[in-house]
Design brief:
The protein is an alpha+beta fold. The chain contains twelve helices and 20 strands. Strand 19 and strand 20 form a beta hairpin. InterPro entries: McrC.
């Protein structure tokens, strides 16, 4: 396995077959080829647009971007960690796990002691499953036509002659027959039920903030009365052979895909040797922004560009809308979330112009960038703008580097969060 990090030069591994195959390939096409890309659709992510790539080449150099995840081709594996992961200190990417837990409101504890050091890749699927499950069930329980087999006196369908001769001779008043029925008990709901049962067995799941998850689990259990653990392979194969195709049920297609990979039981269950590369791709920049929202949501608006909600008008005639990441309810402060390394450098020109435009339109007093940092950087104030005025700043959130356990990492992160929120209200930022 090759271990690399986000936003890094990986040219030394350019001969790796996975990197060779995925170099300069956009994520929109990879999603069509079976990659799991989170957020679940490219449309939902501001940072991973349709032209984004896992590995970008330029002047014979190859770099990674704002993505983490796991890639596999046959027996070759590439793990893309966050840049805050140190393999020499920890076996796990605590920062990624922390972001997933905070944003997705789920705590995952693996209860299967017979696991290896690579099991965390399989854990990625478990973290993502609840949100895919919730999104699909928001459409209602999946219903489709299925073939039902009966053996009674109330014949309503096509007689199954072979089964009738086998089970009802000598004749006892029953007829074996089959019908086509529009049913909630079908290949998809059975697949989801088998996945839920597997997760119950292998993991201790705590759905911290997903209010409807237990109700949705009960709904699946109620409609899959024919569930049997011995049918798992048949259900799995039927779903592999028959993917959900109707565009209205896209959420169920995505859920079906992730359930299949979980039930295959071989980490993220991708391919045999010689097949094309497959993998899980997570937009860590999106995770960072949504994580900041968990800290700021009490006092800050969080516009959603892709949902066209919460934006502000650029012109007085309301003909154009812009979407800052965060702005204070009283519009005195604007914050842009950037998953960038700004410890030793200033803002890029386009980032600076972006927050200046937000500051001007909102008539805010201050505007700045919030980013994850390895160090406690005291140089946060960037100065007062000439002309209409306003102050620019950058504010880091310190990420622990030497934690001996995930529990210790979380404790230090809580301290970092408290200091981060407090510093946002310091007088140096003009409030």
């Amino acid at each position: 396995m090759i271990l690399i990090k986000d936003n890094s030069d990986v040219s030394e591994y350019k001969s790796n077959p996975i990197i060779q195959e995925l170099k300069d390939r956009d994520l929109a096409n990879l999603e069509k080829e079976g990659f799991i890309i989170f957020p679940s659709t490219l449309i939902r992510s501001d940072d991973l647009d349709k032209d984004s790539q896992i590995f970008m080449s330029h002047n014979e150099k190859i770099r990674t971007g704002n993505i983490v995840g796991f890639l596999k081709k046959g027996k070759k594996e590439v793990r893309i960690c966050s840049r805050f992961y140190d393999a020499g200190v920890n076996k796990e990417d605590y920062f990624l796990r922390f972001l997933l837990q905070k944003v997705l409101n789920i705590n995952v504890v693996n209860t299967n002691i017979n696991t290896d050091s690579n099991n965390e890749f399989y854990d990625l699927l478990v973290y993502l499953f609840p949100i895919y499950f919730e999104n699909a069930l928001n459409k209602g329980v999946y219903k489709e036509y299925t073939t039902k087999k009966y053996n009674n006196a109330n014949v309503k369908g096509v007689v199954n002659v072979a089964k009738h001769l086998k089970t009802n001779i000598p004749f006892q008043g029953k007829i074996a027959y089959e019908t086509r029925e529009f049913s909630f008990d079908n290949k998809i709901t059975q697949l989801v039920r088998h996945t839920l049962e597997k997760l119950r067995k292998d993991y201790e799941l705590n759905f911290l903030g997903i209010e409807n998850i237990k109700e949705n689990i009960r709904s699946i259990e109620q409609v899959t009365q024919t569930y049997s653990k011995y049918d798992r392979l048949d259900v799995l194969q039927e779903n592999i052979s028959n993917p959900v195709r109707h565009g209205y049920f896209e959420e169920y297609y995505l859920l079906q895909k992730i359930c299949i990979k979980i039930l295959n039981e071989n980490k993220i269950a991708f391919g045999e040797e010689g097949q094309e590369a497959q993998g899980i791709i997570i937009d860590v920049a999106w995770l960072w922004e949504e994580y900041l929202n968990t800290l700021l949501k009490e006092e800050y608006e969080h516009p959603q560009n892709k949902n066209s909600s919460g934006g502000i008008s650029l012109f007085v005639d309301r003909t154009h809308t812009i979407y800052p990441d965060f702005y204070k309810v009283d519009k005195t402060k604007v914050i842009d979330a950037k998953y960038k390394n700004l410890d030793q450098r200033g803002m890029k020109r386009e980032d600076r112009y972006q927050i200046i435009s937000y500051l001007h339109i909102l008539k805010a007093q201050t505007a700045g960038i919030a980013y994850p940092s390895r160090m406690f950087n005291q140089n946060k104030d960037m100065g007062i703008l000439d002309g209409y005025g306003g102050r620019l700043f950058k504010i880091p959130l310190l990420i622990p580097q030497d934690s001996k356990s995930y529990e210790e990492f979380c404790e230090i992160m809580q301290q970092s969060e408290q200091r981060f929120v407090e510093e946002l209200d310091l007088d140096i930022f003009g409030i």
